[in-house]
């Protein structure tokens, strides 16, 4: 009965002990050892035999350990080493089903919490989780998208970044690359191959040259589109430069009005509270340049909300003329960037694309990092992001 409940193919329970609230089961093989290379039953004399204690799924609230004999063999096929055990991977200290159980929990819980629940070290959880991700990753079908999203994510403080490549239409993360230099993206495209790159039609990104250069080189047929979220960030920086300059030149009696107004200028009007609206209006009343920049920023948002590509392009041209006529140095500097990036911005308007999927991933990645208190191992961070966005579904472990 106990052998049937344990359900380990070709093994039966020989002995059971309950020690310190832990269950120890000693098992024996029903048949001769099997060679892992030729998968034939080994009939000769084994070189040596030893028992190894491995952990299995807990039973009745008690941790369960199995003492399993391992035989070393010299097979006629040329193999020399440990026999094959179908329910236990080589060098593993846990059964395959225990490893799958831990991996399933790691999809929905932090590794620290999993280690506390199961009473094992976090390092063991990390290792089992990484092994599970790599195993599932090999079973995934290759993705051949027509549209790519390329964006950066902050790994930790001190301007340490990673590059994330996504397939927005498929809602998948293709890869997470260490750093944001062009060499990282070069390596990614090289690994994918020329035929894969030829199928790419659109690549949405920010204005970072390290993304643009390798994309032009490898995806020659693709149209590069600049994401308007990043363009808005560039404009916000221009307005902030203007605010700092105007604050320095402000009259002494007006200095207090400028204090704490940075985010008031950058927030959307509908998100401002009543007291914030009063403070913002006081600032705009005494400073014409900031008032003009604030209106231009509102108009800049309207460019991307046009009903058609044609209307968006017209709005962009009109906005550039209006911004130039304002003749504000910080705004002029931003307009020069817009004119320089004009082909890529127009692609974005014509194709109606944005990097919103990648931006959404960035927000979730920050949550993943906070839950783990940061990842010192970049490879684990990379695998964890792929796991959480590509194959997060958990099948019932009770179903066969």
Describe the structure.
This protein has 400 residues and is α/β, with parallel strands linked by helices. The protein folds into 3 domains: 1-93, no CATH class; 147-227 and 354-377, Ribonuclease H-like superfamily/Ribonuclease H (Nucleotidyltransferase, domain 5), CATH 3.30.420.10; 230-350, no CATH class. The protein has 17 helices and 10 strands. The chain has helices at 2-6, 96-108, 111-118, 122-139, 182-192, 194-198, 209-218, 228-249, 255-258, 262-266, 274-286, 288-303, 309-326, 329-340, 342-351, 356-371, 378-390; strands spanning 11-19, 22-29, 48-59, 62-74, 80-82, 147-156, 160-167, 172-178, 202-205, 223-226. The strands form 2 sheets. Strands 1, 2, 3, 4 and 5 form a 5-stranded mixed sheet that branches. It has a 5-stranded mixed sheet with strand order 8-7-6-9-10, with helices on both faces.
What's the helix and strand layout?
Blueprint: H1 2-6, E1 11-19, E2 22-29, E3 48-59, E4 62-74, E5 80-82, H2 96-108, H3 111-118, H4 122-139, E6 147-156, E7 160-167, E8 172-178, H5 182-192, H6 194-198, E9 202-205, H7 209-218, E10 223-226, H8 228-249, H9 255-258, H10 262-266, H11 274-286, H12 288-303, H13 309-326, H14 329-340, H15 342-351, H16 356-371, H17 378-390
Parallel strand pairs: 2-4, 6-9, 9-10
Antiparallel strand pairs: 1-2, 3-4, 4-5, 6-7, 7-8
Helix pairs in contact: 2-4, 3-4, 4-17, 5-7, 8-12, 8-14, 11-12, 12-13, 13-14, 13-15, 16-17
């Amino acid at each position: 009965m106990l052998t049937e409940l344990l359900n380990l193919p070709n093994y039966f329970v020989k002995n059971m002990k309950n020690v310190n609230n832990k269950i120890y089961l000693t098992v024996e093989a029903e048949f001769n050892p099997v060679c892992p290379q030729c998968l034939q039953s080994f009939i000769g004399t084994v070189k040596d035999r030893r028992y190894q204690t491995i952990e299995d799924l807990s039973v009745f609230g008690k941790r369960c350990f199995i003492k399993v004999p391992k035989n070393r063999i010299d097979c006629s096929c040329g193999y020399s080493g440990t026999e094959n055990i179908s329910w236990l991977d080589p060098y593993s200290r846990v059964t395959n089903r225990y490893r799958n159980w831990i991996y399933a929990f790691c999809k929905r819980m932090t590794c620290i919490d999993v280690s506390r629940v199961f009473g094992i070290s976090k390092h063991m959880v990390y290792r089992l989780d990484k092994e599970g991700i790599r195993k599932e990753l090999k079973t995934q079908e290759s993705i051949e998208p027509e549209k790519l999203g390329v964006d950066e994510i902050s790994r930790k403080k001190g301007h340490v970044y990673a590059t994330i490549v996504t397939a927005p239409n498929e809602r998948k993360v293709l890869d997470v690359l260490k750093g944001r230099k062009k060499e990282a993206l070069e390596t990614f495209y090289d690994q994918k191959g020329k035929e894969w790159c030829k199928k790419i039609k659109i690549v949405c990104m920010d204005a970072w040259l390290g993304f643009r250069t390798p994309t032009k080189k490898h995806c020659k047929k693709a149209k590069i589109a600049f994401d308007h979220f990043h363009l808005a960030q560039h404009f916000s920086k221009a307005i902030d430069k203007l605010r700092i300059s105007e604050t320095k030149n402000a009259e002494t009696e007006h200095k207090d009005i400028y204090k704490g107004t940075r985010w008031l200028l950058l927030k959307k009007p509908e998100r401002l509270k009543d007291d914030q609206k009063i403070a913002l209006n006081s600032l705009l009343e005494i400073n014409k340049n900031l008032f003009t920049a604030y209106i231009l920023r509102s108009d800049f948002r309207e460019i991307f909300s046009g009903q058609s590509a044609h209307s968006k392009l017209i709005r962009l041209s009109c906005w550039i003329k209006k911004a130039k006529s304002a003749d504000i140095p910080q705004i002029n500097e931003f307009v020069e960037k817009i004119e320089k990036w004009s082909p890529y911005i127009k692609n974005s308007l014509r194709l109606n694309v944005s990097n919103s999927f990648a931006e959404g991933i960035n927000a979730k990645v920050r949550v993943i990092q906070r839950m783990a208190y940061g990842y010192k191992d970049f490879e684990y961070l990379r695998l964890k992001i792929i796991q959480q966005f590509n194959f997060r579904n958990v099948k019932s472990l009770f179903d066969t």
